[in-house]
Every structure is written in C-alpha cells, then in structure tokens.
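Changelog note: in this version the structure field was regenerated for every chain. One regenerated record is shown below for reference.
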Amino acid sequence: MNKLQSLAALIDAFNHAIGRSAAWLALAMVLVQFAVVVLRYVFGIGSIMMQEAIVYMHGVLFMMTAADTLLQDEHVRVDIFYARAAEQRKALINLLGCAFFVLPFCILIAYVSLDYVSMSWSVREGSRETSGIQGVFLLKSVILLFAAQLSLQAISGILTNAGKLMRSERG
C-alpha cells in the first residue's frame, strides 16, 4: 500500500471512529427525551436544559456522522445509472463527486460559517433561556468540525478512487 492509500486508510479509520462514537447520541437522545416526558407529565417538572440537550445531541449526531456515512457509501444518491455501472465507472463517478461536489461544498460551508462561529465564540454565546445550556458557541463550532471532517473524507474518497482507477488501468 502506498503512502496516499495509507493516508486514506488513516482518514477512514479516524472518521469511522468518530462516526461510531457519535452514533451513540441516538440512544442518549431517546433516553433524555423519555426522561423529559416522564418529568413533565408524571412529576410536572420541566427542564429547558434537557430539552436543549436533545437539540444539541441531534445536531452533533448528524454533523459528526456525515463523514462516516460518506465512507460507508450510505448517502442518498440517484442510482439509475450508478447501480449498473462497472466498478471503474463507479470509481470515476465517486472521484469526481468528491472532487467537484463534496469538497467545494465543505469549503463553502467552512467559509460561510467562519464569521458565524467566530462571532459566537467572541461573546461566548449561550442559550436565550436562563436555565438553558450556556454553550451555544460550542454547538456552532460543530459546523466547522463537520466541514473539516467531511473534507478529509472527500480527500480520502479522491485518493481511494484514484487508486482504484490506476489499478484497473494497470491490470
């Protein structure tokens, strides 16, 4: 395995570990939501912080599992032509998709959200509710982490599919 393929494998392992870890937030969301309902309707106790925690977990869940979803090739795609394509054509489509769609999208997301996140950090933005989570700036930072992580996975996809194309030309 050459150095570029090793780099792709390292990125894949990194994103898979983050994705697998973040996926546990789905269970946490269910448990916290159950607790919110029980506290509210059985004991008459409301918790803004717990309700906001569900929103935070939901955001982190989707943002931090996106790269692993791309790695597993589980994103929605129109498979009209792709499903019947040869492996070499699939590799080319994936390479072009990562290079001309995913990577530019991530760069745009990072560029557009940089001021948004920076402003939030500069004032240590918190919840509008006094009993809410006072870490909105941390949640907004996940946008940049999402863009970075998905960019890395796009780079891995480019390297992996370029390797497939080169191997198919040689062999």
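Spot check on this record: Residues 3-170 form one domain. The two ends are 16 Å apart (CA to CA).
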